[in-house]
Amino acid sequence: MTKTNVLTWKIGGEAGGGQQVAGLIFAKACTRGGLFTFDSSEYPSRIRGGLVTYRLSISSKPVTAIYKPTQLLITLTKQAFNYCKPDIVKGGVILYDSDKFTPDKQALRRTTAYPLPLKTLAKEAGVPAIASNMIAIGASTALLKYDLKIVEKTISEVFLSKGHKVIELNLKAVRMGYEYAQNNLKPEQFPFTLKKSDSKKKPKILVTANDTIALGAVAANCKYFVAYPMTPASSILHNLSAWARRSGMVVFQPEDEISAIHMTIGGGYAGVRSMTATSGGGFALMNEGFALGGITETPFVLVESMRPGPATGLPTWTGQTDLAFLCRAGHGEFIRIVLTPGDAVEAFELTGTAFNLSEKFQVPVVILLDKHISEGHQSIDPLVNNFEIDRGKLLTQAELSKIKKYKRYLDLKSGVSPRAIPSQKGGIHIANSDEHDQYGFSVEGFQADEAIKQVDKRFRKLPAIQKALPKPKMYGPKKAKLTLMGWGSTKGPVLEALKELPHVNYLHVTAAWPLSEDTMKRAVVGVKKLVAIENNATAQFAQLLRGQTGIQVDKKLLKYDGQQFFPEGIISSVKRLIK
């Protein structure tokens, strides 16, 4: 390990070289050895070619972010070598595929780089060239002096479904890489090591926020999921479709995002918990449907995983660029809730919260992620389903039978009307996209009083919603010279940075909309210097905060280059702000 107790391993090469498979296997092997990991992959928006990297930060203690300084780098192409080389730390090593390229002499200055002839080694091992990524894993295992048996067991588990022949092929490749490194790369001189944990604590699981969103939907008794695939939200659809038979969930991929949101609303109208998932471009197509859910007061959950825009933007990179869009999306005025989990655990927990809030208040609820946590794997404790299902004012047949004239949009003080679903006797009503009266019949501007009543009724939900939302949470010392305030995926890098910033704390927001002035003012009591940290160019949350509560930040730390924050970058920026 290193002084920071975190070691970063990285592999880079051309798309199709198996970097992502190798990285995930190595992450799983480290997790199986009782270590903590966080990973992230960089890849282009193309079917073939282009640079693909996989970065893995490993620690004997919980790690919540990717560190940029790299101790061991495997480069399969010259492009990967040149791109990744600046991240190598003093004492770090680069392994390069000498069968494909030789680095320039200038590039090798002040750098320890060893040749790793992957094609030659694959031929010697009697395995196809496609197994070169496993040779690189074997060499890494030897250099880091990690337990080869754990790596071999992980490979056997990963390839179990592909049969004994595939397992043996990959094991031969790993052993060849391990032996080559032992004999040629002087692992005894490499200053960084990975040592498995002897702790008897319960084993960790390796998941992304997309994985835990899918698990959370199953745990929350979601029975209808409709989505059109769009990076980086697609794996939610992949997971739920794979589990559909066991979970009893109806999972469907329609022709486009417009169909997806309308079918999701249809599921909510029919009385089942329904969810859809997309990214910013897909949600742009969903806007009209989103407003339909607002006026019909139909509960449903929408997952939006952000990537930089506008338009197609940087489709395979990350950013927090859609918050303002989500909070104001849809024509007209209606309430929506936007939840912003910061990691895989919060994504799971807030999925259960989202379904309860949606049904309790009969409003659309958005769970807002981004590519970094949607696709970045993190080792966590196994998840526990403690969800309590709250279906709000969903009427039973017995309750409905006692109502003489059912009014779907009954004008109550709470703003939440009793909800009947199709097939219930006595519950006939119109779920009308036009403004309507209490029965659902359309009203015009000639009946202004009725229109005003329904608008006011819907907005009377707001105080109770604000009270029910998760409160901001402060991490770090109670008293601090400076307070960072963020939402969503900034959480992990900031928490890592706090380990080196004893006079700084962090206010983490998991409910970004609707904002409560009272809640937010209580959250910043005693704060000396408030600094917004966001993965966008305009400090979107800070703008919303000022507009809704009058709270103004003192400074802003903004990043909008397609990458997430790195802990070391936050540390250096904050130290300058404290001076």
Question: Would you spell out the secondary-structure blueprint of this structure?
Answer:
Elements: E1 6-14, H1 19-32, E2 36-42, E3 51-59, E4 70-75, H2 78-84, E5 88-96, H3 105-108, E6 112-115, H4 118-125, H5 132-143, H6 148-158, H7 164-184, E7 205-207, H8 209-219, E8 224-226, H9 234-247, E9 250-252, H10 257-270, E10 274-278, H11 280-296, E11 300-306, H12 323-328, E12 337-339, H13 344-361, E13 364-370, H14 371-375, E14 378-380, H15 397-401, H16 448-459, H17 462-468, E15 473-475, E16 482-487, H18 491-498, E17 504-509, E18 511-513, H19 517-523, E19 530-534, H20 540-549, E20 555-558, H21 567-578
What brief labels describe this structure?
single chain; 579 residues; alpha/beta; Pyruvate-ferredoxin Oxidoreductase, domain 3; Rossmann fold; 4 domains; seven-stranded mixed β-sheet; six-stranded mixed β-sheet; 21 helices; 20 strands; 39% helix; globular
